Q: What sequence folds into this?
């Protein structure tokens, strides 16, 4: 069988969404977007603003990892903080015990969440969506409690400093701790993640996973394996969550059990929903909106979470596909010349 299952249930050919001829142009556009990040520190002189922007980009990567899982698998993770915090703690623990080189730890901090997500995913992606969500939440909270209570290993709620060598991958460590230069690093990582996932979503694999999401039973009926592709999506989502955790640890230089807490997963999910999961870049837009509302409301009242919640409700009711869906709709109308 050479096709995949369409959302309506029929077997259809599965070419990439974007023709191969468009890939070079897409990559060129991604390279320009990445290069644009270098101009931001030249325009924004405020270190506070750059710090907030860097944090927003890091959380945008986390939100994208959650949104991609929803988009491709139709599954909602309440425990993505496990991948984020696991990666951050790996850097901190290696700094404490000095077991292996920092470069290998950074790579492991991205690879280990992916491997763990794949192995766990082989089991839990078979379950109903609610069971999947609850198990991811339970897993993340178990890691949170472990780091909170195992003081001899991770100093409990006092947290751990992230001790790093003077250079990392041949780059001076100050680059990763300066707001202006770290913004560029995080921005390039964000653009790279969006580009990779966009190409993947337009590939045969991406079309197949969406078809499985829409009608898993029919996909099995026509001969496709459904568990492994869904587990691979979960693994990639975990790797991206780990990447966000690595950037967080490098920039902040300190990790606490809060990096594993369910509230972090919740914030990432809120960002994804506000921005919209129908597009790859939507959750990143949601992260920007989240940080703008959080900081603006935080200056006015200590009850800023209520304002975030209200924003989420308004977007969910008025724009079910998220802000990115609204942007995409207006862009499509403009391209078609419609008012």
A:
């Amino acid at each position: 069988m050479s096709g995949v299952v369409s959302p309506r249930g029929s077997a259809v050919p599965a070419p990439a969404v974007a023709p191969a001829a468009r890939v070079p142009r897409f990559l060129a556009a991604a390279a320009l977007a990445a290069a644009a990040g270098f101009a931001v520190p030249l325009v924004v002189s405020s270190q506070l603003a750059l710090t907030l922007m860097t944090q927003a980009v890091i959380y945008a990567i986390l939100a994208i990892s959650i949104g991609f899982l929803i988009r491709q698998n139709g599954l909602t993770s309440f425990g993505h903080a496990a991948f984020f915090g696991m990666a951050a703690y790996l850097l901190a623990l290696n700094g404490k015990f000095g077991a292996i080189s920092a470069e290998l730890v950074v790579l492991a901090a991205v690879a280990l969440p992916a491997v763990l997500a794949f192995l766990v995913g082989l089991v839990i992606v078979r379950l109903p969506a609610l069971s999947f969500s609850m198990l991811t939440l339970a897993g993340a909270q178990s890691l949170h409690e472990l780091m909170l209570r195992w003081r001899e290993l991770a100093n409990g709620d006092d947290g751990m400093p992230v001790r790093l060598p003077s250079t990392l991958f041949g780059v001076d460590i100050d680059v990763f701790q300066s707001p202006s230069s770290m913004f560029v690093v995080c921005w390039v990582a964000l653009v790279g993640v969006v580009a990779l996932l966009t190409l993947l979503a337009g590939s045969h694999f991406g079309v197949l996973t969406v078809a499985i999401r829409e009608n898993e039973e029919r996909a099995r009926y026509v001969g496709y394996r459904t568990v492994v592709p869904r587990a691979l999506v979960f693994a990639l989502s975990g790797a991206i969550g780990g990447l966000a955790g690595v950037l967080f640890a490098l920039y902040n230089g300190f990790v606490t059990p809060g990096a594993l807490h369910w509230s972090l997963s919740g914030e990432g999910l809120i960002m994804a929903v506000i921005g919209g999961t129908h597009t790859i870049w939507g959750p990143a837009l949601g992260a920007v909106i989240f940080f703008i509302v959080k900081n603006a409301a935080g200056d006015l009242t200590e009850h800023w979470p209520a304002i975030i919640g209200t924003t989420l409700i308004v977007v969910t009711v008025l724009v079910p596909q998220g802000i990115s869906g609204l942007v995409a709709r207006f862009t499509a109308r403009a391209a078609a010349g419609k008012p």
